[in-house]
Amino acid sequence: MPNIKSAIKRVKTSEARNAQNTTVKSAMRTAVKKTEAAIALNDTTAANESFVEAASKLDKAAAKGLIHKNAAARKKSRLAKRKNALNA
Predict the structure, then answer these.
(1) How far is the C-alpha of 80 from the C-alpha of 55, rounded, in Å?
(2) Which pTM does this prediction carry?
(3) Residue 31 C-beta-side C-alpha neighbours within 13 Å
(4) Most buried of 16, 31, 34, 47 (most Cβ within 10 A)?
């Protein structure tokens, strides 16, 4: 455990940030899995609704720097491709 006041603060803030980042990343993964599950069940309405949520969560994670913006774009593109194939 650090003795210097600024180092103590850094530990506290990094733990708080880590907790927040973990929450956002977990919510993103859950939204993507929910969309994939709806696509697997051929449920078009659920897939469309959950895709909007998943895309939003991916964008927010990319904006916060949790995942790269190109990775978010790639995941959204692949989900959209599968969703659109289901609708066709």
Answers:
(1) 9
(2) 0.87
(3) 24
(4) 47
